[in-house]
Structure formats: structure tokens, C-alpha cells
Amino acid sequence: MKRLQKTAVLLAAVILAGAFSSDDIKVEATSSTWQQIQQEQQEKNNLQNQLNQENDNLENLKGEQNSLKGQLNNLNGQLTEVSNNLADLEQQIADKEQEIADTQASLEEAKETEAWQYECMVIRVRDMYERNETSYINALLSAQSFDKLLNAADFFERIAAYDQKKLKEFEENRRLIEEEEARLQTEKAELDQLKVAAEAEKSKVSGLISQTSNNIAKYAGDISAAEQRALEYEAEIKQKEENLETLRKKLAEEIAMSQKAANATWRDISDISFEEGDRYLLANLIYCEAGGESYDGQLAVASVVINRVRSSIYPNTVVGVIYQSKQFSPVASGRLELALAANKATSRCYQAADEAMSGVTNVGNCVYFRTPVEGLTGINIGGHVFY
Q1: Is the per-residue pLDDT at 4 higher than 60?
Q2: pTM for the full predicted model
Q3: Which end of the chain is more exposed for a tag (fewer CB within 10 A), N or C?
């Protein structure tokens, strides 16, 4: 029997909820509107903080990237300088190698000349010995006069002196050429060392350029990603602002409707005929909305429901009021259905329902309740403000 009663109550609630959704009744007051505003505002603030952090991160990334670009410009300048220096060294080395080649050729020629001069001297000396020293003596003794004798002796001495002089000249020339060759080889070795150092420096700078270019490219990717995240945050913030505007308008409408309700035509409690199941439905709604509150808090919730039944701008039945669209969050969430199915209402919830249905109210003509909000005045009972 009880199950049939509950089914009938729920069916009537559904029918009446549709019956009172006309344009004449545009009351969208819910106890969660301010909570929704607070939640949206908090989410917007969080998004704004994230956006600010992302913008700071973006500035840092751009600063790092610009710093790397400056380093890259310096490195490119260094690379140009090192490359020019290396090219100059290579030219100097090529010139030095040519000088060495020319000097080596001169040295070979000097050695050949020296060897030829030495060979000529050896031939003359050997010829003189082979012909016997008497030929030299005979040449002297055959002189017809003392002057001719002296001339002959002087002739032989000049030949010997000439050979010695030339030999010494060729030896000295060879020595100078060898010294020049040694000097050129030393200079070339120094240039080779400078070239090795320059090539190492070029390789180092090229590596730094490659690494810096890669880092710049990485920062470019990071910047692009950060900019995309910033755009997403901005879009979300814009959406939150639109949501807040909608909720604020909704809240203003609720407050206006509350004031309108206070000035509406009110029926006397004796003029209301309660249906079977109203007490059961109201007690379970009280349980869902204020089950953990004091008795005063539970009576206040019941009084709001009955005040709406009495007001001319709300449905004129308990079922119609409770199931009016977007009025009580337990209806939308499904908690009321669960409570009804298990009859969760306590004895105090039934007591509060009975008193309210008999005309007792501890909130006057209030037709709304919610968690306290800034700027909203009313009667504060437990965790709700009634207005």
C-alpha cells in the first residue's frame, strides 16, 4: 500500500512539475546559485593565476631565446673571424712552402756548384801530382827572367788561392741557404701549429653555433606551446566570465523574485488542502536539505516550501513546489528520489513538516534559502540564509 502511495505521489509530482513550467513563473532560485558563482569565480581566479604564470614563463622563454640569439650573433662573428684567420694562415703556409721549395732548389744548386768547384780543384791538384811536381818546378826554372819567375809563382798561387776562395764562398753560401731553409721550416712549423689551433677553434665555435641554434629552436617550440596554453587559458577565462555574468543575472532575478514573492497574494494556511503523500514528500526533502541541521533549520526549510504553496506566484501544491524546475538541488541530483525510496526522513523531519503544514513558520514569508552570500540579507539559521 505504501509503495502504491509513493508511486502516486511521484507521478503527480512529474505531472505538476510540467504544469507549472510556463512563462508566467520564471523563478530559477536554487540554493546552489551562489555556490556556483563562487566556484566559477574561484576557477576563473585559478585560470587567471595560471595565465599570469604562463605569461611570466613566456617572457622568461623569450628573454632566454633573445639572449641565445645574441650569443649566436657573437658566435657567428667569431666563426667569421676564425675562418678568415684560418684562410690567412693557409695562405701563409702555402707561401712558406713555396719559399722552402725555392730555398731547397737554391740549396741543391749551391751544393752542386760547391761539389763542382771542389771537383775542379781536386782534378787540378791530382793533375799536378800526376805530372810530377817537377812540372811546377820546371815551369819556375824555365822562366827567362826573375820577373817571369815571380809571375809564374804568382800564377800558381793565384790559382790555388782562387780555388780556396771559391770553395769557401760556396761553403758559406750553402751554409746560409741551409740556415734559411731551417728558418723557413721553423716558421712553417709555427704556422702549422697556428693552423691546428685555428681549426680546433673553428670546430669549437661551429659546435657552439650548432648547439645554440638547436637551443633557439627548442625555445621557439616552448614559446609556441606556451603561447598556445595562454590562448587556451584566455578562452577559458572568457568562458568563465560569461558564466559568471549569467549566474549574476540569475542571482539578481532570484532576489527580485524573492521581493516579488513577499508582495504577492498569500493564501491562509486554512485555505490549503494537503494531499496524501505531501507530508511524506516534504519530510524527505527536509532530510535532504537540512538533515544535519538543528530542528530550527529543518523547520525553516519546511516553512519555505509551505510559504511557496501559499504564495500566488508559485505552484499551489507541495508536489508542484518541490518539483518545480530548477528549485531544489536534491530533486535535480536524484538524492530526493533515493531518500523517498528508503524513507530516510527522521522523526524530527516529520515533526518539522507537520508544524509547517499547520501554519507554523520561523522565517516569516521567506521563499528562498541558500548558503550565506555577500550583500544578501535575511534570516540566518544554521548553514543557510532565508529570504
Answers
A1: no
A2: 0.45
A3: N
